[in-house]
Amino acid sequence: MRKVSLYCGFFGQMMGALAMTRGMMNNVQINQQIFRESTVKSTRHPRAPTLEDVARNAGLSPMTVSRALNTPQLVRPKTVEKVMLAVRATGYIPNAMAGGLASRRSKLVAVVVPQINNNMFVDTIQALSDELARRGYHMLLCVAGYTEQTEAELVATLLSRRPDGVVLTGIHHTTELKKVILNAAVPVVEIWDLTPTPLDMLVGFSHERVGQATAQYLLRKGYRRPGLLWTSDSRAAQRKQGLCDVFASCISKGLPQVDVPLPASLALGRSGLSQLLGEGTFDVIVCSSDTLAQGAIMEAESRGMRVPQDLAVIGFGDLDFAASNRPTITTISVDRRAIGQQAASLLAERIEQQPCKAPIIDIGFHLVERESA
Amino acid sequence: MRKVSLYCGFFGQMMGALAMTRGMMNNVQINQQIFRESTVKSTRHPRAPTLEDVARNAGLSPMTVSRALNTPQLVRPKTVEKVMLAVRATGYIPNAMAGGLASRRSKLVAVVVPQINNNMFVDTIQALSDELARRGYHMLLCVAGYTEQTEAELVATLLSRRPDGVVLTGIHHTTELKKVILNAAVPVVEIWDLTPTPLDMLVGFSHERVGQATAQYLLRKGYRRPGLLWTSDSRAAQRKQGLCDVFASCISKGLPQVDVPLPASLALGRSGLSQLLGEGTFDVIVCSSDTLAQGAIMEAESRGMRVPQDLAVIGFGDLDFAASNRPTITTISVDRRAIGQQAASLLAERIEQQPCKAPIIDIGFHLVERESA
DNA sequence: TTGTATGCGTTATCAT
DNA sequence: ATGATAACGCATACAA
């Protein structure tokens, strides 16, 4: 299933070797002390075996061992064989800090998201992680909350790891962050948003157009008294902007709205609708996420209102429950996994100096008409 | 809100400095080229500024700069001042690979989970991330799926980063993994499970006892014809074991059961109940997660069955929607954030050689009686 | 309080 | 195809 398939360096080989020789593992001496004792200079702390230990064991130079592990095609097969034996005998595990220092490539990608426990982002993160792993990169994950300042602080600390690439959520950053990241000259992908002027590369979609499409659909369906159940992050704000722009052409007064804190939840959907219903009458509730929509639907039905006959509800995200909820939830579908997968691919290809594709990918979205609106 | 507060090294200071001088940032020269040109030996690649660049700029030795950044209390305040100015002038960002190589401490913690897009784990991961950040560690996150072999491969690659600590999900690992990790002599915390014999440290709870408690509760409430809606991961299997053990004392025949794949979803809850109802009659459906329970409830009600009068449903996890679902979902509550927070604390304290607390923390659980069962 | 010498474990580069 | 040497950027240990 999930396997490191493309990355054929040290671990690819060793895992193959381990798999083949698992039966004899008990006979193989894996003990650092043995090598410590045969070492000339004795250090206080017992060290992990190094290239030099492996080289000594194999009767080769450290450089040859390094090559056998990283670019085996440049080494005689017989020699590679000897090296692998020595690696297993010593229990050698490469030191990526030393390797990265020398090679100036860390095989590390830093990812900054506002939240992990947010149904919107987890799929993207998982896809990022999968694709990065497939390509031999590790993922440094940081949670920045929804403030630009926190993000800037985090990125500064992250850059000390000398990541080969950085993934940022959104397109709004402090000027310091931009300065620092441009100065570091590290490839960057911004995700989950769209702009003609990204820092570097971008994979996302237009939240404003999502809002517009939502409003157009609702108007077409005949809804004229919308109420908003909304969270306060900047991307939700953009969707609201698009929504209001379109509604404004048909509805004179501003849209009634209830704000809820992040993260969205079923409970907030329920309480939010309660509050909203106390402030007016509506024919449709537009929610900034499916989670809120599910809560709104539940609250409406608990009050004896039928959805969508008495009150329609529309969400955003097409989360997994939207298609099987009762009623099923009309929503905007976004390929969240694709965002992560494409972001990882863009970064990896840039890092590996492959011919650069379009640095701005609009992943798009589509409205899924279901029962709730 | 989320701030790096305890960790008072380089970035703590610099961010303070940046905050204070933000107004003048535009006037500050941050440009690597300038320093390249004043450097004696010219390298081909434009390098990021190093300690040496800062030292030269400040008229100090690199070692003093290093101290000013890492242990400012050992340096004269005036000198620290000079260093900070030079740091800002050069745009210096420490190289953690070089620092880690020299100090043998990476300030990195590797976290291995079966899935990210799983409502059970995200809260734990987020808490882990928060607590690690608070203590000045970065999180290397890897997704292993549910196979031990994949986990073993991942850990081998992760150890090449020389993490100061490792977090593993669960207590079942391949013998290779154990060998490798013990050989690396790296602190380990296993989470989300319980055993008297962890690899090293552990934060979790007994899934078997969860199953027992669930069964006892249901028997006490008078339910006698349970049906199981279950996923196939090993922790769910342990809960089932506990459940069956207790039910076995009262119910002679085995428990009817429908297995669903991971990750659990509302849709699987609905289809799973459909299947189950085709195979017998029940008074309660025991689900391996709240997500399945929510789906089962929805399916039952869509068939005109009232929950709990016609069919009771009990879940596991006390996910955020459980308390506000309609009906509210009776479930087992686990402090998922605490698992992450405690795991991070245990690791950090061990890494920093503080007096070792109990290395096995049973985080416990409690049954939350609500409407659904 | 500051500076010097040395080593951390690897890879780039050049030589053989 | 293999080896020798010199970085890589920093912190430890010790000296002043």
Automatic annotation (TrEMBL), chains A, B:
PANTHER family: LACI-RELATED TRANSCRIPTIONAL REPRESSOR, TRANSCRIPTIONAL REGULATOR
Swiss-Prot/TrEMBL keywords: DNA-binding, Signal, Transcription, Transcription regulation
Annotated HTH lacI-type domain residues: 49-103
The protein, known as: LacI family transcriptional regulator
Organism expressing this protein natively: Mangrovibacter plantisponsor
Record SUPFAM superfamilies: lambda repressor-like DNA-binding domains, Periplasmic binding protein-like I
A UniProt-annotated Pfam family: Peripla_BP_1
A GO molecular-function annotation: transcription cis-regulatory region binding
InterPro entries: HTH_LacI, Lambda_DNA-bd_dom_sf, Peripla_BP/Lac1_sug-bd_dom, Peripla_BP_I
Protein's UniProt keywords contain ATP-binding: no
Keyword Transcription recorded: yes
